[in-house]
Amino acid sequence: MTRSATARLAVLALLVGFVGGLAGWAMLGERAVTVPTAIAETLVPSGAASPAAAGPAVASPSPTVASPSPVPPSAAASAAPSPAASPAPSASPAASPAPPYRGPTTRTVPVLMYHRIADPAPGAPYPGLYVSPAAFAAQMQALRAAGWRTITAGELGAAMAANRPVPARTIVIMFDDGYADNYLAAFPVLRRLGFRATFSVVARGGSTMMTSLQLATMERAGMEIGNHTLDHKNVASLGPAELVRQIEGGALRIEARLASKGVIATPRTFVYPSGHVGPAALALLGQLGYTDAFTEVPGFAVIGRTSPLLIPRVRVSRFESLAAFLGSLPVQPRP
Ligand SMILES: [Zn+2]
């Protein structure tokens, strides 16, 4: 075990006591199991720090970027000017960075929620969790054609923490649970279109779930791996010790699995299993430095308004047409 992991476990022991106090408090009041829509739309005062930013950053070392970007070859190229260049080498326009975005912006960001990208076998449980690979590819191509760009869930959390609008037609694409079909059917489509997405996985994995190598491969390719607890537990129903084990234990497990394949990343995006939210889980996520957590409440994220730890999403159904899919998104100008 690394030194930082040891230190984090020590902090976890303290948090157990902290959450225990909260759970006792929660039991005195209403036994909130699921946060209703109204709470998910809770106003955050403009310019106020998010709960995550406001809480003391207890246990989260600054997350490290997964893939070190190689030095671009432009420096070497520009170092050797062509001898045939006749005009005086005045102000060289070489390798200018991307110009700042000056198009229309928005504070309303749709967050798509997918689970399985596959055709369900006859009699498969929860057929509503499936979207066919063909429908998924058509949806992604339609988004691209309509000028939508993607950011990860973590990047949305950062924009919300900074109260910073994003370019119009910015979207977050999320996959829950970590099924292997996400890697096999969704990842190639996303890569081909230059899209990024967030995959919030059940840390323990399983035979139908993505392997550690598949998770690491996606993180290297710019995807985000998020936390969906260790065992897909209802976090509103757990005692303090089990709550910490499921949330931070899940993150540690994902971190270790990625590290075993050479990727250094700490998940700091969370998805509530089955959408169950509880006050102790909310408090713990804030204490652990999570910047964004996602419910199954239908709706859009509104920067400066939605609580970053209670972000609603748009469920994509395998029964909806492409037109209905596009119609479920907010109307925004092209960037
Ligand atoms: Zn789930």
SSE order: HHHHEEEEEHEHEEHEHEHEHEEEH
Largest β sheet strand count, sense and barrel closure: 8 strands, parallel
Name the beta content range: 5-15%
Q: How many β strands by DSSP?
A: 14
The helix fraction, in percent, is 25-40%
Strands, helices and their partners?
Blueprint (H helix, E strand, L loop, with lengths): L2 H26 L8 H4 L10 H4 L19 H6 L25 E2 L1 E2 L1 E4 L1 E2 L12 E2 L1 H13 L3 E2 L2 H9 L4 E2 L2 E8 L2 H14 L4 E4 L10 H9 L3 E4 L12 H20 L9 E3 L7 H9 L4 E7 L2 E2 L8 E5 L6 H6 L8
Helix pairs in contact: 1-9, 1-10, 5-7, 8-9, 9-10
Zinc ion binds next to strand 8.
Would you give an account of this structure?
- The protein is an alpha/beta fold.
- It has a single domain (3-59, 103-327), classed as TIM Barrel (Alpha-Beta Barrel), CATH 3.20.20.370.
- The chain is 36% helix and 15% strand.
- It is built from eleven helices and 14 strands.
- The chain has helices spanning 3-28, 37-40, 51-54, 74-79, 133-145, 153-161, 180-193, 212-220, 240-259, 279-287, 322-327, and strands spanning 105-106, 108-109, 111-114, 116-117, 130-131, 149-150, 166-167, 170-177, 198-201, 224-227, 269-271, 292-298, 301-302, 311-315.
- The strands form four sheets. Strands 3, 6, 8, 9, 10, 11, 12 and 14 form an eight-stranded parallel β-sheet that branches. It has a two-stranded antiparallel sheet with strand order 1-7.
- Helix 5 runs parallel beside helix 7 and helix 9 (240-259) crosses helix 10.
- The radius of gyration is 21 Å and the shape is globular.
- Mean pLDDT is 81; it is low at 17-91.
- The structure holds zinc ion (ZN).
- Residues 176-177, 228, 232, 273 line the site of zinc ion.
- The site of zinc ion (ZN) has 5 residues, from strand 8.
